[in-house]
Design brief:
Elements (H helix, E strand, L loop, with lengths): L2 H99 L8 E3 L5 E3 L8 E6 L5 H16 L5 E7 L4 H11 L5 E3 L5 H4 L6 E6 L4 E7 L4 H11 L2
Parallel strand pairs: 3-4, 4-5
Antiparallel strand pairs: 1-2, 3-6, 6-7
Length: 239
């Protein structure tokens, strides 16, 4: 075999070896890529699981939100109850306002009682029936029936009756002294101009009755009566 032939064979073998090495390298590169893709697939699965977990958490979040909504529902119930109470208070306030708007008493006045407190026609709203008795310390029949008024005032307070004594301011000192001596506790006030036409009949004692709307009931009662006599009148008016 000549030298030229040997070189040719060497070149051919070298080429074959180069090709084999190249193929081997290509296979290694492919295997690495496939491995990476497989790893990526695992990560994707993990991510998918995480997504599922996140999805469950999201659902749990929704449930939690629903829980909060349920809690809000309870709060809403409380608000509804408060709304009912507020509505009741509003109704009461409206009723009071309507009463105030319709307030048109027969006697509009402002005076003071024996303690210096201001008393107005609003006092009629404090009872279903108000008994106004005009009296004086020097009037025997007046003084004689006042202990009965004291007893009636205590006995009928829960039935809607209030008794108010009316006296002249000019005689206040003597009248207050008489009240203390008799042990009278029901309220007594100075006579107001609004009462002149009705109470100032020229005779004492004189008594009138007024309802809770400040309206005069019937006519004035002139003169004293027994406890039984007054109770008959009061019971009839309270029916």
């Amino acid at each position: 075999m000549t030298t030229r032939q040997l070189k040719s064979i060497a070149i051919i073998l070298g080429g074959i070896l180069f090709i084999l090495v190249a193929v081997w390298i290509v296979n290694i590169i492919r295997d690495n890529k496939t491995g990476n893709n497989a790893d990526t697939g695992i990560e994707s699965n993990v991510t998918g699981k995480n997504d599922d977990k996140n999805g469950n958490v999201s659902d749990t979040g929704k449930d939690t939100g629903t829980g909060k909504d349920a809690g809000t529902g309870k709060d809403a119930g409380s608000v509804a109850d408060t709304g009912e109470v507020t509505g009741a208070v509003t109704d009461t306030a409206q009723a009071a306002q309507e009463t105030a708007d319709n307030w048109n008493p027969d006697f509009v006045f402002s005076t003071t009682d024996t303690k210096g407190n201001t008393v107005t026609d609003e006092i009629f709203k404090e009872a279903r029936l108000t008994m106004l008795n005009y009296w004086a310390y020097w009037c025997g029949p007046c003084i004689g029936e006042m202990p009965d008024f004291e007893a009636i005032s205590n006995e009928y307070a829960d039935k809607g009756l209030q008794i108010i004594g009316v006296y002249d301011a000019a005689e206040e000192a003597e009248d207050i002294k008489a009240l203390n001596e008799l042990g009278i506790t029901y309220r007594c006030i100075r006579i107001a101009r609004a009462f002149y036409d009705t109470l100032n009949t020229g005779y004492i004692p004189t008594t009138i009755f007024v309802d809770e709307n400040g309206k005069l009931i019937g006519q004035a009662y002139v003169g004293a009566r027994s406890k039984t006599g007054w109770l008959a009148i009061i019971d009839e008016l309270l029916k």
